[in-house]
Design brief:
Blueprint: H1 7-17, E1 21-25, E2 31-36, H2 37-45, H3 56-59, E3 66-68, H4 73-83, E4 87-92, E5 95-101, H5 102-117
Parallel strand pairs: 3-4
Antiparallel strand pairs: 1-2, 4-5
């Protein structure tokens, strides 16, 4: 979504696609930040400003915390703890290719532990 997208439009996209976060791009397509459903509640709705008058640029979190595609789940969790974030941008060769959440990493670690037991 672009930085100029309205908060209500972004919320509808989240609802329609069943996602809890959107990457926000600037005018040239560069990554500007990330907006989560929690950001919409805490930064838009709770601010007292009419959400329809706010854009993603107003509520996006930045700078983004990026993890390399080759990082281990443990390394990614350490980055999340260090930067106090719940989501990381995944990059391959410096280019963003996706997003990983704390829940994704917890599940991956649980599965690998289960594989060791079996």
């Amino acid at each position: 979504m672009t930085a100029g997208t309205s908060v209500p439009d972004a919320a509808r996209v989240m609802r329609d696609y069943h996602v809890g976060a959107l990457l926000v791009t600037g005018p040239s397509g560069e990554l500007h930040g990330i907006v989560t459903d929690r950001d919409i509640c805490l930064r838009a709705v709770a601010s007292g400003s009419p959400p329809g008058q706010l854009t993603l640029a107003d509520i996006a979190s930045s700078p983004l915390v990026v993890v390399d595609l080759e990082a281990t789940p443990q390394e990614a969790i350490s980055m999340m703890q260090e930067h106090h974030v719940r989501r990381l941008i995944v990059a391959d060769g410096g280019s963003p290719i996706g997003l990983v959440t704390r829940e994704d990493l917890t599940e991956a670690l649980s599965q690998s532990t289960l594989d060791l037991v079996i």
